[in-house]
Amino acid sequence: MKKEKTMKLSLPTDELMSSGHLACQGCAATLAMRYVLKALGQKTALCIPACCWSVIDGPFPYSSLDVPIFHCAFETAASSASGLKAGLEMVGDTETTVVAWAGDGGTFDIGIQALSGAAERNDDIIYICYDNEAYMNTGIQRSSATPLGAWTTTTPVKHFKNRPKKDIDAIMAAHRIPYQATANTSYPEDLYKKAKKAKDIKGTRFLHIYAPCPTGWKSRPEDSIKLGRMVVQNCIFPLYEVEDGEKYTLNIKPREKKPINDYFRLQGRFRHLKDEDLKLIQEEVDRNWERLLKKVEIGGQQP
Amino acid sequence: MKKVIMGNHALSWGAQLGRAQVIAAYPITPQTQVVELLSEMCASKTLDAKFIKVESEHSAMAACIAASIAGARTFTATSAQGLALMHELLHWASGGRNPVVMGNINRAMAPGWSIWTDQNDSLSQRDTGWIQFYCSSNQEVMDTVVQAFRVSEELMIPSMVILDAFALSHTYEVVDIPDQDKVDGYLPPFKPPVRLTPSDPHAFGGLTSPEHYFELRYKLQKDMEKVPDLVEETGREYEKLFGRYLGQVEDYRCDDAEIIFVTSGTAGYTARVGVDQLRQDGIKAGNLRIKMFRPFPFAKVREILPRAAKVAVVDRNISYGHHGVFYQEVKSALYGRDHDRPPVFGYITGLGGRDIMPETFKEMARMTLAKDKPEEDITWMGVKR
């Protein structure tokens, strides 16, 4: 008799997100929520400011998540989470994991003050930014997370984004919070592990999740996972952790660092870029990667 | 226990007696002593609360709202620019039916920078769906904070307890601080009808279509309309327990008055001195101090003002391009009452902390009684032209 092969599942099968949500096809922000909730479990409360997810979840009286949500004001993800945590503790609930779940606009731009405040106080919350690199919910306007060279509706082709993406991870490291990590839905086990690790640490924890957006990036929905793989292999969005703002751990170091061109050519938002533009961007990616390797060398460990 | 305390500390004592559970606040002159004493109270554990020392007033209100959704009793305090920064979240607290109680010290809005009193900061928040109480003594400030928790939590509408910068915030007065046990009997623990918890997961404040939004606002107004009766009822109950009635308005010598001043805040206290002096001069004056401005005490105003031949509304504020705010509201309350509507005169005075003196009331009485009806909508008192 032939021996049956059994597949070992790398993620729990329990789901806290149901179908019927309102996300676009190929939305990685939706996958991010699904994986994070698998790690955090049902005793989780979310503060969701204005962002794609305030729509994805579904309109009143529906919700696609089996955890409670406070839909809060745009710039208040962190301060709402701090208040929610304090309030829950005062009514005797010390177990619930309180999560601020915001997009890049709500994190890099309008919500950065409240985030910085919560991080400096080391409030006991997990702040998760799913980063689709522009204001996608309002129709693809540039944010400070939009990468150099990108088209958006407010950075038209003739005046594409001419400043690099804000280094939010360095900003958070400067707050000396106990734990922060970058993650990516194309590496679900890594993302799951990081969310789990964050859950067990006290204080402010920050997860920065790269989240391809076919609608805003003018990419094919079926390429979202591929783009997530490429962005790690070409070192544009490396996967790493930082503890106490100092100890850097690189989770994946590509055997061979891929050039950025293929990644850019899969996305309509970069279609206008000339070879010389890509060359400049490649140089910037190289500098960022070298700087990260130095940080890992000084205060961390190589994979 | 009787203590000589400043108005700002009366707010802190009110929050402690009310057993606030989460406080989130940011310092601003002239509010700072409120949060300083609350920090002491939390540190020495006379108050069992979590104090989140946020980085802005905007975050202060956001944290209070979220803590309130979790089912905790919340308190904060601010003033002027801080209140303006909170504006977005004032709508959020009332729209989300989160009964946050907040102290606001009336301070004039910049520019030019001013730390002195006027009411434009809080009156600019008139339409945010908050109950507003304007106080005229430190005792009233402390008592009103306790009553505000009771009223707010019963109707799930937030409250603002308001006092004048320096004229009250930094003025020391004797305040009778009641026993905690007795206050606990008056104010039960906060038990909201719904709260955010993973054991019964719901989404709060999500996208609301035209199918549902209208009704949410209708319900807020309907509950706002219940506030006057509840203030009356809880104010009488407070009087039974503590000997001090907490009402919507304070009627001072209005019964036989030929001229009634309509005032608020500390000007409403000075008005009583002015009224007494006028009566010594043979002029029958009275004072109707509006303590509760939102919801507007229509019934009280309509009942009391028609007793007089003339009404003089004293506004320490201005709605640019319109008139004084209390003047607008009083006229609106009396509109359509053809038979018993006295002429209403509007005076603007004391902006940016300019003193309002008993003499100011004597002068306003003289000007009001000299005319059959107002010839202008705004009479400026004491302005240098």
Quickly describe the structure.
Chain A is an alpha/beta fold and 303 residues long. Chain A has 11 helices and 9 strands. In chain A, strands 2-1-3-4-6-5-7-8-9 form a 9-stranded mixed β-sheet, sandwiched between helices.
Task: Please tell me about this protein's structure.
The complex is a heterodimer of chains A (303) and B (385). Chain A is of the alpha/beta class. Chain A is built from 11 helices and 9 strands. Chain A has a single domain, classed as 3-Layer(aba) Sandwich (Rossmann fold), CATH 3.40.50. Helices cover 36% and strands 14% of the residues of chain A. The radius of gyration of chain A is 19 Å and the shape is globular. The model of chain A has no long low-confidence stretch (mean pLDDT 96). Chain B is α/β, with parallel strands linked by helices and 385 residues long. Chain B folds into 2 domains: 240 residues, Rossmann fold (3-Layer(aba) Sandwich); 132 residues, Rossmann fold (3-Layer(aba) Sandwich), CATH 3.40.50. In chain B, the strands form 3 sheets. Chain B has a 7-stranded mixed beta sheet with strand order 3-2-4-5-7-6-13, with helices on both faces. Chain B has a 6-stranded mixed beta sheet with strand order 10-12-11-14-15-16, sandwiched between helices. A two-stranded antiparallel ribbon of chain B has the order 1-8. In chain B, α1 packs parallel to α2. At the A-B interface, β1, β2, α3 and α5 of A face α3, α4 and β9 of B.
